[in-house]
Amino acid sequence: MYDLKGKVAIITGGASGMGKAASVLFAKAGANVVVADLNVKGGKDVAELASESGNKCIFQRTDVSDEGDVKAMVAAALENFGRLDITFNNAGIGGAVGPLEDIKVEDWDRTQHVCLRGVFLGIKHSVGPMRAVGGGAIVSTASIAGIDGYNGLHAYCAAKAGVVNLTRSASLEFAADKIRINCIAPGGVSTPIVYGGLANKDSVETMLLNAQPLHQVGQPEDIAEAALFLASDAAKFITGHTLVVDGGATAGAISTARRADQARAFSGQRAFAGPSFELG
Ligand SMILES: NC(=O)c1ccc[n+]([C@@H]2O[C@H](COP(=O)([O-])OP(=O)(O)OC[C@H]3O[C@@H](n4cnc5c(N)ncnc54)[C@H](O)[C@@H]3O)[C@@H](O)[C@H]2O)c1
Protein backbone atom coordinates (compact mmCIF):
# COMPACT_ATOMS: atom_id res chain seq x y z
CA MET A 1 0.00 0.00 0.00
CA TYR A 2 1.17 3.58 -0.66
CA ASP A 3 2.42 5.23 2.50
CA LEU A 4 0.94 8.39 4.04
CA LYS A 5 2.57 7.98 7.46
CA GLY A 6 2.81 11.30 9.31
CA LYS A 7 0.69 13.13 6.73
CA VAL A 8 -2.47 15.13 7.31
CA ALA A 9 -5.25 14.94 4.74
CA ILE A 10 -8.55 16.75 4.19
CA ILE A 11 -11.19 14.82 2.25
CA THR A 12 -14.29 16.72 1.12
CA GLY A 13 -17.44 14.77 0.43
CA GLY A 14 -15.98 12.37 2.99
CA ALA A 15 -19.34 11.25 4.40
CA SER A 16 -20.29 9.00 1.49
CA GLY A 17 -19.21 7.10 -1.60
CA MET A 18 -15.69 7.75 -2.88
CA GLY A 19 -14.87 10.22 -0.08
CA LYS A 20 -15.86 7.68 2.57
CA ALA A 21 -13.71 5.01 0.90
CA ALA A 22 -10.79 7.45 0.63
CA SER A 23 -11.11 8.54 4.28
CA VAL A 24 -10.81 4.94 5.45
CA LEU A 25 -8.01 4.11 2.98
CA PHE A 26 -5.93 7.25 3.67
CA ALA A 27 -6.20 6.62 7.43
CA LYS A 28 -5.12 2.99 6.94
CA ALA A 29 -2.16 4.30 4.93
CA GLY A 30 -1.09 6.33 7.96
CA ALA A 31 -2.72 9.76 7.59
CA ASN A 32 -4.70 11.80 10.07
CA VAL A 33 -7.86 12.73 8.17
CA VAL A 34 -10.30 15.64 8.34
CA VAL A 35 -13.57 14.32 6.95
CA ALA A 36 -15.41 17.36 5.55
CA ASP A 37 -19.02 17.23 4.40
CA LEU A 38 -22.46 18.82 4.65
CA ASN A 39 -23.78 15.53 5.99
CA VAL A 40 -23.11 15.70 9.74
CA LYS A 41 -24.31 12.24 10.79
CA GLY A 42 -22.61 10.46 7.87
CA GLY A 43 -19.41 12.46 8.29
CA LYS A 44 -19.11 11.74 12.02
CA ASP A 45 -19.67 8.02 11.38
CA VAL A 46 -16.92 7.99 8.73
CA ALA A 47 -14.47 9.83 11.01
CA GLU A 48 -15.13 7.20 13.66
CA LEU A 49 -14.71 4.36 11.16
CA ALA A 50 -11.46 5.81 9.76
CA SER A 51 -10.11 6.26 13.31
CA GLU A 52 -10.26 2.46 13.73
CA SER A 53 -6.99 2.51 11.73
CA GLY A 54 -5.33 3.87 14.86
CA ASN A 55 -4.85 7.29 13.26
CA LYS A 56 -7.02 10.07 14.65
CA CYS A 57 -9.65 11.33 12.22
CA ILE A 58 -12.14 14.14 12.82
CA PHE A 59 -15.28 15.48 11.18
CA GLN A 60 -15.68 19.10 10.14
CA ARG A 61 -19.07 20.24 8.85
CA THR A 62 -18.27 22.03 5.60
CA ASP A 63 -20.12 23.47 2.64
CA VAL A 64 -17.37 23.47 0.00
CA SER A 65 -19.06 26.29 -1.90
CA ASP A 66 -18.73 28.61 1.11
CA GLU A 67 -15.35 30.32 1.51
CA GLY A 68 -15.74 30.77 5.29
CA ASP A 69 -16.46 27.04 5.69
CA VAL A 70 -13.45 26.09 3.56
CA LYS A 71 -11.17 28.36 5.61
CA ALA A 72 -12.54 26.75 8.79
CA MET A 73 -11.95 23.28 7.30
CA VAL A 74 -8.27 24.04 6.69
CA ALA A 75 -8.00 25.66 10.14
CA ALA A 76 -9.43 22.46 11.68
CA ALA A 77 -6.62 20.44 10.08
CA LEU A 78 -3.98 22.84 11.38
CA GLU A 79 -5.48 23.15 14.89
CA ASN A 80 -5.98 19.41 15.37
CA PHE A 81 -2.98 17.98 13.53
CA GLY A 82 -0.54 20.89 13.11
CA ARG A 83 -0.04 20.70 9.35
CA LEU A 84 -1.68 20.01 5.99
CA ASP A 85 -0.14 17.76 3.32
CA ILE A 86 -3.04 16.50 1.20
CA THR A 87 -6.42 17.87 0.12
CA PHE A 88 -8.83 15.64 -1.79
CA ASN A 89 -11.46 17.99 -3.29
CA ASN A 90 -14.09 15.36 -3.87
CA ALA A 91 -17.51 16.73 -2.80
CA GLY A 92 -20.05 16.91 -5.58
CA ILE A 93 -23.68 16.85 -6.65
CA GLY A 94 -25.43 15.92 -9.89
CA GLY A 95 -26.94 19.41 -9.91
CA ALA A 96 -29.11 20.68 -12.75
CA VAL A 97 -30.22 17.66 -14.80
CA GLY A 98 -32.30 17.69 -17.96
CA PRO A 99 -32.85 19.70 -21.15
CA LEU A 100 -30.71 22.85 -21.37
CA GLU A 101 -33.64 25.15 -22.09
CA ASP A 102 -35.31 24.07 -18.84
CA ILE A 103 -32.30 24.74 -16.58
CA LYS A 104 -32.99 27.51 -14.07
CA VAL A 105 -30.14 29.97 -13.62
CA GLU A 106 -30.05 29.31 -9.87
CA ASP A 107 -29.72 25.56 -10.47
CA TRP A 108 -26.93 26.17 -13.01
CA ASP A 109 -25.14 28.41 -10.49
CA ARG A 110 -25.51 26.01 -7.58
CA THR A 111 -24.03 23.20 -9.66
CA GLN A 112 -21.00 25.36 -10.53
CA HIS A 113 -20.69 26.54 -6.92
CA VAL A 114 -20.46 23.06 -5.45
CA CYS A 115 -18.62 21.23 -8.24
CA LEU A 116 -16.22 23.94 -9.47
CA ARG A 117 -16.04 26.81 -6.97
CA GLY A 118 -15.64 24.18 -4.23
CA VAL A 119 -12.49 22.87 -5.94
CA PHE A 120 -11.15 26.40 -6.49
CA LEU A 121 -11.65 27.22 -2.79
CA GLY A 122 -10.09 23.92 -1.75
CA ILE A 123 -6.96 24.72 -3.75
CA LYS A 124 -6.92 28.40 -2.73
CA HIS A 125 -6.92 27.70 0.99
CA SER A 126 -4.74 24.56 0.98
CA VAL A 127 -1.67 25.88 -0.81
CA GLY A 128 -0.54 28.26 1.95
CA PRO A 129 -0.23 25.60 4.69
CA MET A 130 1.27 23.14 2.17
CA ARG A 131 3.90 25.66 1.11
CA ALA A 132 4.73 26.15 4.80
CA VAL A 133 5.68 22.45 5.14
CA GLY A 134 7.64 22.34 1.89
CA GLY A 135 5.01 20.91 -0.47
CA GLY A 136 1.88 18.84 -0.74
CA ALA A 137 -0.58 17.08 -2.99
CA ILE A 138 -4.02 18.18 -4.10
CA VAL A 139 -6.32 15.74 -5.85
CA SER A 140 -9.77 16.70 -7.11
CA THR A 141 -12.60 14.56 -8.41
CA ALA A 142 -13.58 15.59 -11.92
CA SER A 143 -15.50 13.10 -14.10
CA ILE A 144 -15.48 11.60 -17.57
CA ALA A 145 -18.34 14.11 -17.96
CA GLY A 146 -15.59 16.74 -17.77
CA ILE A 147 -13.90 15.20 -20.81
CA ASP A 148 -16.84 14.20 -23.04
CA GLY A 149 -20.25 15.81 -23.36
CA TYR A 150 -23.31 14.08 -21.85
CA ASN A 151 -26.71 15.14 -23.09
CA GLY A 152 -28.82 16.17 -20.10
CA LEU A 153 -25.85 16.84 -17.79
CA HIS A 154 -24.88 20.28 -19.14
CA ALA A 155 -24.13 22.08 -15.87
CA TYR A 156 -22.25 19.10 -14.46
CA CYS A 157 -20.22 18.65 -17.69
CA ALA A 158 -19.24 22.33 -17.67
CA ALA A 159 -18.23 22.27 -14.00
CA LYS A 160 -16.19 19.07 -14.29
CA ALA A 161 -14.42 20.32 -17.45
CA GLY A 162 -13.56 23.36 -15.34
CA VAL A 163 -12.00 21.07 -12.72
CA VAL A 164 -9.88 19.35 -15.40
CA ASN A 165 -8.44 22.60 -16.71
CA LEU A 166 -8.15 24.37 -13.33
CA THR A 167 -6.04 21.36 -12.35
CA ARG A 168 -3.69 22.11 -15.24
CA SER A 169 -3.40 25.86 -14.68
CA ALA A 170 -3.01 25.58 -10.90
CA SER A 171 -0.37 22.85 -11.29
CA LEU A 172 1.78 25.36 -13.19
CA GLU A 173 1.48 28.06 -10.53
CA PHE A 174 2.29 25.83 -7.57
CA ALA A 175 4.92 23.49 -9.07
CA ALA A 176 7.68 25.74 -7.73
CA ASP A 177 6.24 25.22 -4.22
CA LYS A 178 6.38 21.42 -4.75
CA ILE A 179 2.60 21.25 -4.53
CA ARG A 180 1.33 18.71 -7.05
CA ILE A 181 -2.19 19.21 -8.35
CA ASN A 182 -3.99 16.39 -10.17
CA CYS A 183 -7.53 15.17 -10.70
CA ILE A 184 -9.38 11.93 -11.29
CA ALA A 185 -12.06 11.39 -13.92
CA PRO A 186 -14.23 8.51 -12.73
CA GLY A 187 -16.65 6.66 -14.95
CA GLY A 188 -19.86 5.19 -13.52
CA VAL A 189 -19.27 4.29 -9.88
CA SER A 190 -21.74 2.70 -7.50
CA THR A 191 -22.48 5.52 -5.02
CA PRO A 192 -25.57 7.37 -3.78
CA ILE A 193 -24.97 10.25 -6.24
CA VAL A 194 -25.92 7.85 -9.04
CA TYR A 195 -28.66 5.89 -7.32
CA GLY A 196 -30.05 8.32 -4.74
CA GLY A 197 -33.75 8.97 -5.29
CA LEU A 198 -33.94 6.65 -8.33
CA ALA A 199 -36.63 3.99 -8.48
CA ASN A 200 -34.94 2.19 -11.42
CA LYS A 201 -31.60 1.38 -9.74
CA ASP A 202 -31.27 -1.98 -11.54
CA SER A 203 -31.72 -0.60 -15.03
CA VAL A 204 -29.23 2.21 -14.35
CA GLU A 205 -26.76 -0.40 -13.07
CA THR A 206 -27.20 -2.46 -16.26
CA MET A 207 -26.64 0.64 -18.38
CA LEU A 208 -23.44 1.48 -16.51
CA LEU A 209 -22.22 -2.11 -16.93
CA ASN A 210 -22.84 -2.01 -20.65
CA ALA A 211 -21.21 1.41 -21.10
CA GLN A 212 -17.94 0.32 -19.49
CA PRO A 213 -15.95 -2.21 -21.55
CA LEU A 214 -14.50 -3.92 -18.45
CA HIS A 215 -18.18 -4.72 -17.75
CA GLN A 216 -17.97 -3.53 -14.17
CA VAL A 217 -19.67 -0.74 -12.30
CA GLY A 218 -16.84 1.05 -10.54
CA GLN A 219 -16.63 0.77 -6.76
CA PRO A 220 -15.82 3.74 -4.47
CA GLU A 221 -12.63 1.92 -3.47
CA ASP A 222 -11.42 1.97 -7.11
CA ILE A 223 -11.40 5.77 -6.99
CA ALA A 224 -9.98 5.89 -3.45
CA GLU A 225 -7.00 3.77 -4.61
CA ALA A 226 -6.34 6.18 -7.50
CA ALA A 227 -6.58 9.15 -5.12
CA LEU A 228 -4.17 7.48 -2.69
CA PHE A 229 -1.64 6.92 -5.47
CA LEU A 230 -1.83 10.56 -6.65
CA ALA A 231 -1.66 11.85 -3.06
CA SER A 232 1.37 9.70 -2.20
CA ASP A 233 5.05 10.21 -2.95
CA ALA A 234 4.79 7.40 -5.53
CA ALA A 235 3.31 10.10 -7.80
CA LYS A 236 6.05 12.63 -7.03
CA PHE A 237 6.72 13.34 -10.74
CA ILE A 238 3.03 13.72 -11.68
CA THR A 239 1.23 17.06 -11.74
CA GLY A 240 -1.44 18.72 -13.89
CA HIS A 241 -2.74 15.27 -14.83
CA THR A 242 -6.26 13.89 -15.19
CA LEU A 243 -6.29 10.19 -14.30
CA VAL A 244 -9.21 8.49 -16.04
CA VAL A 245 -10.62 5.61 -13.97
CA ASP A 246 -13.61 4.46 -16.00
CA GLY A 247 -13.44 0.77 -16.93
CA GLY A 248 -12.70 1.84 -20.52
CA ALA A 249 -15.83 3.98 -20.94
CA THR A 250 -13.95 6.69 -22.83
CA ALA A 251 -11.57 4.35 -24.67
CA GLY A 252 -13.25 4.27 -28.04
CA ALA A 253 -16.16 4.07 -30.44
CA ILE A 254 -18.10 1.12 -29.02
CA SER A 255 -18.20 2.54 -25.55
CA THR A 256 -19.19 5.96 -26.92
CA ALA A 257 -22.39 4.57 -28.45
CA ARG A 258 -23.28 2.76 -25.24
CA ARG A 259 -22.74 5.86 -23.17
CA ALA A 260 -25.38 7.66 -25.22
CA ASP A 261 -27.96 5.33 -23.62
CA GLN A 262 -26.59 6.16 -20.21
CA ALA A 263 -26.88 9.90 -20.82
CA ARG A 264 -30.48 9.48 -21.99
CA ALA A 265 -31.27 7.71 -18.72
CA PHE A 266 -30.05 10.65 -16.67
CA SER A 267 -31.61 13.42 -18.74
CA GLY A 268 -35.06 14.36 -17.54
CA GLN A 269 -34.76 12.37 -14.30
CA ARG A 270 -35.18 15.41 -12.08
CA ALA A 271 -34.67 19.15 -12.30
CA PHE A 272 -32.03 19.39 -9.59
CA ALA A 273 -30.09 16.70 -7.76
CA GLY A 274 -28.57 18.07 -4.55
CA PRO A 275 -26.38 16.26 -2.00
CA SER A 276 -27.07 12.53 -2.23
CA PHE A 277 -27.99 12.15 1.47
CA GLU A 278 -30.96 14.47 0.84
CA LEU A 279 -32.22 12.53 -2.20
CA GLY A 280 -34.00 9.85 -0.18
N1 LIG B 1 -20.51 8.09 -8.78
C1 LIG B 1 -20.16 8.36 -10.02
O1 LIG B 1 -20.50 7.63 -10.95
C2 LIG B 1 -19.29 9.55 -10.31
C3 LIG B 1 -18.70 9.64 -11.58
C4 LIG B 1 -17.86 10.70 -11.84
C5 LIG B 1 -17.61 11.65 -10.89
N2 LIG B 1 -18.20 11.57 -9.66
C6 LIG B 1 -17.85 12.58 -8.66
O2 LIG B 1 -17.31 11.91 -7.56
C7 LIG B 1 -17.39 12.74 -6.40
C8 LIG B 1 -17.87 11.93 -5.21
O3 LIG B 1 -19.22 11.54 -5.44
P1 LIG B 1 -19.80 10.12 -5.04
O4 LIG B 1 -20.06 9.40 -6.32
O5 LIG B 1 -18.96 9.48 -4.02
O6 LIG B 1 -21.23 10.55 -4.47
P2 LIG B 1 -21.79 10.69 -2.97
O7 LIG B 1 -23.05 11.42 -3.09
O8 LIG B 1 -21.78 9.36 -2.33
O9 LIG B 1 -20.69 11.59 -2.25
C9 LIG B 1 -20.63 12.99 -2.43
C10 LIG B 1 -20.51 13.65 -1.07
O10 LIG B 1 -20.40 15.08 -1.28
C11 LIG B 1 -21.16 15.70 -0.26
N3 LIG B 1 -21.52 17.06 -0.65
C12 LIG B 1 -22.43 17.45 -1.58
N4 LIG B 1 -22.48 18.79 -1.63
C13 LIG B 1 -21.59 19.26 -0.72
C14 LIG B 1 -21.17 20.55 -0.33
N5 LIG B 1 -21.71 21.65 -0.86
N6 LIG B 1 -20.21 20.65 0.62
C15 LIG B 1 -19.68 19.54 1.19
N7 LIG B 1 -20.04 18.30 0.86
C16 LIG B 1 -20.99 18.16 -0.10
C17 LIG B 1 -22.37 14.79 -0.07
O11 LIG B 1 -23.02 15.03 1.17
C18 LIG B 1 -21.73 13.42 -0.18
O12 LIG B 1 -21.32 12.94 1.09
C19 LIG B 1 -18.29 13.90 -6.80
O13 LIG B 1 -17.50 15.03 -7.10
C20 LIG B 1 -18.96 13.40 -8.07
O14 LIG B 1 -19.37 14.44 -8.90
C21 LIG B 1 -19.05 10.54 -9.36
Quick summary:
The protein has 280 residues and is of the alpha/beta class. It has a single domain, classed as Rossmann fold (3-Layer(aba) Sandwich), CATH 3.40.50. Helices cover 46% and strands 15% of the residues.
Question: What distinguishing features does this structure have?
Answer:
globular; two-stranded antiparallel sheet; Rossmann fold; 280 residues
Q: Describe it for me?
A:
The strands form 2 sheets. A 7-stranded parallel beta sheet has the order 3-2-1-4-6-7-8, with helices on both faces. It is about 45% helix and about 15% strand. The termini are far apart. Helix 4 runs parallel beside helix 5 and helix 7 (about 200-210) packs antiparallel against helix 9 (about 255-265). With about 280 residues, the chain is of the alpha/beta class. It has 9 helices and 9 strands. The relative contact order is 0.16. The chain is globular. Nicotinamide-adenine-dinucleotide binds near residues 37, 38, 63, 90 and 92.
